[in-house]
Write a structure and sequence with these properties.
- The chain has three helices and no strands.
- It has about 100 residues and is mainly α.
Length: about 100
Amino acid sequence: MNKTARFLSVAAVAAFASFGAQADEADSSQFALKFDTNRTRAEVAAEAATVAQTRSQEPAGSRVVTYTSTADRAAVRAQAAEALRTGKISSGEFSAM
């Protein structure tokens, strides 16, 4: 039994060591992209400069849109009071239970 256990442990270590021998480079060189271009560095830099000038520095939707109302404050209050009186809008707290 002692010889069998020793043989199995040696076989396990040998199998484990063989997996490491088949590993590839650690830097993922097999996935590297290859580019073949004929543009110069100056052309690429000039294009990058024009793209940066045409982009906005503000994130999309960061500006608050202002709205100028032409309605009279008294007229809006009167309309709200009428809607409340006729039941078109509710008042008070709503209890869902």
